Amino acid sequence: MMFDKEYVAADEGLSARVRDLIDCYQTGKGLSGDFYRNPEIYQLELDRLFRRHWHCVAHESLLPNANDFELFKMAGETVIISRDETGQIHAMLNLCRHKGAEVCTELRGNARSFTCPYHAWSYGSDGALKTARLMPAGFDRAGHGLHKLAVRVVEGLIFISFAKKPLNFNEAEALVRGTCGQYGWTDAKVAHRETYAIDANWKLAIENYVECYHCGPAHPEYSELHVLEQPLEEIDALNDAMKLRTLALGVDVTECSPWETSAQGREAIRSYRYALYDGIKTGSKDGMPVAPLMGKFAGYDGGVTSLHFGGMTYMAVYPDHGVIYRFVPTGVNACEMELIWLVNKTAVEGVDYELDRLTWLWRLTSEQDKKIIEHTARGVASHYYTPGPIAPMEAQTQRYISWYLAELAHPCP
Ligand code: FES
Ligand SMILES: [Fe+2]
Description:
Elements: H1 7-10, H2 16-23, H3 34-37, H4 39-50, E1 55-59, E2 68-74, E3 77-83, E4 89-93, E5 108-110, E6 113-115, E7 122-124, E8 129-131, E9 150-154, E10 157-161, H5 170-179, E11 188-198, H6 202-210, H7 215-218, H8 220-223, H9 232-249, E12 269-275, E13 303-309, E14 313-317, E15 322-331, E16 334-344, H10 355-380, H11 395-409
Antiparallel strand pairs: 1-10, 2-3, 2-5, 3-4, 6-7, 7-8, 9-10, 11-16, 12-13, 13-14, 14-15, 15-16
Helix pairs in contact: 4-11, 6-10
The structure holds FE2/S2 (inorganic) cluster (FES) and fe (ii) ion (FE2).
């Protein structure tokens, strides 16, 4: 999908400099260097991408018990994700409604209440203000609970949105159910997490994730397993053969890619299933299973589903395990890439799966990616950098850049 550029002139909320940068973008080329280093652009991204779109922050198996909580940092904010006494999941901003101090000072744990370290107002695990010391009679406690964010839990995945009026989530939910859902992600558990700090603007990390032009040279191990390292027309026959195997197993492979801009009011999501090379069952060193099958299917189709969600979350759905990629900007020139590995919740480490075998492929690939992203960041920082052509195998990069520019230009309601 291409995006109409006429929206730019209509937005009075953009400075002349930012408008120029967006207007001067040439389809078919990468973004100019300013997009990776201009603090004004970065602030605009926080408003128009990170505080507008939904994010997948975790799998609820991380919070199995009442009053479990964990902190997530995102877009300059800290969010407490907690499970209340009744089992419901909440997302709350970690700032006291009195003078704004952080009320939760532990990264994760179990707490019936969060007591502010400053003047000791105390909030329940559902965010309600329970006590406020020495405040006058008649003080409105109910009106001073922690700020709540929108939360949806779908197939065990916790999604949050900072937006006052969140983007419509219905199509996204249906597609998550149709992909992760049929592979049993509701009944999954987190087997491992790893965070990679990357010295690069967040867009360099995502542009790298969405294209496989670099897979051949940068990821020889991935490329021995996944056909995506080749041009699309070269892999049609392999994908067609996979589809027959997929359908024979009863897996629904309805193509569904309603990748929208927020101007349409709906969350962006797309998915596709693609083949592994003949004889490869999953993304592992020897191509053999690394954990028990997930979902309801009786075998392996030799494929993997890739899911792109809301611009910042990506997922890989193998028959025996899943991988969630979260991209989190931490500054203009820095971001984090968190990987979360999922297996069936009944699987036992050391018996049904070995962590080294389970995580080998995407650890290695992520370490390789960190290096090439940082090489790129150093090059793009040069005064002499000019964007080059987008290669045919980088069609997803073009799609992402066009979408990103449309989001940047579209004012928040
Ligand atoms: S800032 Fe939290 S009680 Fe005062
Ligand atoms: Fe990569």
